[in-house]
Amino acid sequence: METLMRNVFQSLGKNAAAHKLAKRYGLRFGAGRFVAGETIRQAIEAVRTLNADGRIATLDHLGEFVSSEAEAREAAEMCIKTLEAIAEAGVNANLSLKMTSLGLDISKELCMQHMRSILACAKSRGNFVRIDMEDYSHCQVTLDILRELRQEYDNVGTVIQAYLYRSEQDIRDLNDIRANLRLVKGAYKEPAEVAFPDKADVDANYKKLIKLHLDNGNYTAIASHDEQIIEDAKRYIRERGIPGDRFEFQMLYGIREDLQRRLVQEGYKVRVYVPYGVDWFGYFMRRLAERPANVWFVLKNLFK
Ligand code: FDA
């Protein structure tokens, strides 16, 4: 039953018609628990609240799988507006983005052009941009683009997914550019040809990748709500005396706030991923797929 629900949410998350419909009707079904709002102002307010108790943030203007150049340009402009709003408000946040929203599926050149303007804007404001990792079909091109951009900009990093067999080699290869990486389990539905089908294998690989990247001396964002993973990382960091400016923990907006606060109290750097915007549907479906128990939460909101 759980697998069935997971598959339904993952397929819905890729459905363009459902995305359009959701956009038209606004934040619904309790999506507001995971999405900070539809406007920049609401997103900045959410960051202010997080900053007030010591948590920092990464803002994501939601959007993915755009099909026209105009939509891609609009998404790039929103990224720049978000960076400007962060600077104007003086809040502690950087930017996360998805390159399919910048026209990656239209052409790599178009996406690179947008990435360069976004990175130049971030650089002039002393800020950093994280390229989220999307489904497997975009993995290689994402890493290729990161490599190219790193020749011009040092304020960019990406994400590596522990469920992919290739990730260990990718981390080893990315060592030559001292890549700043967010390490995650992986949120998309991938076939067994490319990804570990069993959760236990994903978890074991995740622990291994965290240690590998930390040992390489590169900046490591450990992005998980899994206490076992977090405890394992904390233990390793303590044993190896890894300094606090080499790593951070990251969690998603609205998930395990108790754990976020506890880590801050223990003195760790905690960054919360704060998504906002009208294109919330795909993001929301991935959060439901990760934890089908969340569906009760959706049902409750249907009748509100
Ligand atoms: P796991 O799924 O095992 O969950 C551990 C525990 O966390 C659960 O038992 C539950 O308590 C809680 N939990 C997890 N998900 C929940 C949810 N949706 N609702 C309520 N509770 C939940 N993926 C990707 O493919 N590309 C990317 O770029 C990113 N970026 C990213 C940024 C940040 C900051 C985070 C935290 C995560 C991502 N992810 C991602 C998503 C990631 O791949 C993964 O799907 C989720 O983090 C869930 O995995 P956990 O490591 O939390 O463990």
The overall average pLDDT, rounded, is 92
Q: Could you say which overall geometry the principal axes of the C-alpha atoms support? A: globular
Radius of gyration, taken over Cα atoms and rounded to an integer in Å: 18 Å
Give every kind of bound small molecule, once each.
dihydroflavine-adenine dinucleotide
**DSSP strand tally:** 8
CATH class of the largest domain: Alpha Beta
In the CATH hierarchy, the architecture of the largest domain is Alpha-Beta Barrel
Query: Which fold name is given in CATH as the topology of the largest domain?
Result: TIM Barrel
Order of helix and strand elements from N to C terminus: HHHEHEHEHEHEHEHEHEHH
Strand content: 5-15%
List the helices and strands and how they pair.
Blueprint: H1 2-12, H2 16-25, H3 40-52, E1 56-61, H4 69-89, E2 93-97, H5 108-124, E3 129-131, H6 139-150, E4 156-161, H7 167-174, E5 181-184, H8 199-215, E6 220-223, H9 227-240, E7 247-252, H10 257-265, E8 270-276, H11 281-290, H12 294-302
Parallel strand pairs: 1-2, 1-8, 2-3, 3-4, 4-5, 5-6, 6-7, 7-8
Helix pairs in contact: 1-11, 4-5, 7-8, 8-9
Bound molecules: dihydroflavine-adenine dinucleotide (FDA).
Cofactor: FAD
InterPro entries: FAD-linked_oxidoreductase-like, PRODH_bac_arc, Proline_DH_dom, Proline_oxidase
Protein name: proline dehydrogenase
Short recap of the structure:
With 304 residues, this protein is α/β, with parallel strands linked by helices. It is built from 12 helices and 8 strands.
